[in-house]
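Researcher: Excuse me, tokens okay?
***
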Amino acid sequence: MGIRKHAAAPAAALALGLSFTPPAAIATNVIMGTVAPLIAVAFGNLGFMSPAVAEPLTKKQSDALNAYNNSKSQFEQVLAQRRAQINSNQGLPNLPGQALYLARNNMMSAYKDLTDALPSRIGGPNKYGIPPAYFDADNEPLLDEYRRLFDLMQAPPANAQKSDTPFRDVVDLGTAIARARGLDPANAEVAGRISLGLFFAETNGNQNIGNARSNKYKGSLQTGVSEDQNGRRKWAAIKKSIAAFDPALNARDDKEEARAGNLDHRYNHWTAVRDGLMNAHADIFRQVPAIVKTLPDPIDQMKLFELIQIIPSPTKSALGSRNLVDYRISDPKIMAYLRNNSVFTFGQADRAKTSATYREILDAMWLFNEKFERALSKFDEIKKQSKG
């Protein structure tokens, strides 16, 4: 896939004050019923300190606190606005998820600035696995609503062709493509696992979805039209070799091709995954054995292949270098693409970085951890079913 040049790539792309700015008044009865309890929960523990023990804040700390309270209020307002529009069947603006994404990022950035200025505000862990310095666990209900809204805005079109075995399809295709690229069964299995991680990273494990933040990227592996077509051409070139060692998979492919017909192949789960993997990842699968030696952590392996989605050219250069983890990125455009994908995005200190090694980049991709952990769990489940 080419470098994602829209304002911020999907995510997938997905991180207290002594006083706070109250949320804006909610205009409709529908939104009161949906979001008011959400906000009440989110504000359930504001972390007030007793005046008898509280120390006066410095101006920097006070400014950081006010900025955080304002950003949180703005996030709540955008959530409430989208929920009201959806519940009342109003038309949504172009790229309706973009404002939500930016508001979430602003809240997490402001919280990181607050905890940098006032470390005592760092709280406990949260269910999303976001580092506590970047996210207050009391705000989990806000991210819950954020995800629910994206699920609604990115729902597959009515003519999309789903699979009853979407996760197994991804693993089977990734494994077969890797075998066609010359990998032994053990390393081909790693490629299948990595492929499943990409599915979770790109769509949160949802097949055939649209994209509330892009008019270009669609489907189960979030590809553009040209990328899908390139993947189809590459698949045609290896289809006979796959048929030779896996006739059942080849037969399934024939069935899905006939089923898709003239449909945009990105909205047939099988063909979308197949073409996406062939377009961006099939050639890199050859390097899986070396990658595993350099990055033994399966989640690091998934992150590296996700970087093929985000910054393909630099990542290929890093793979071709003698030291992948120490390969340094310093091009401002590349750093901007990383930030557009929630890497070095949150807080002034992260945004001030002008360069980073691949080890630093992998470590900064913590927003992907929870998705990759679910991918690993699902992969283990599929393996057990296969052995059973």
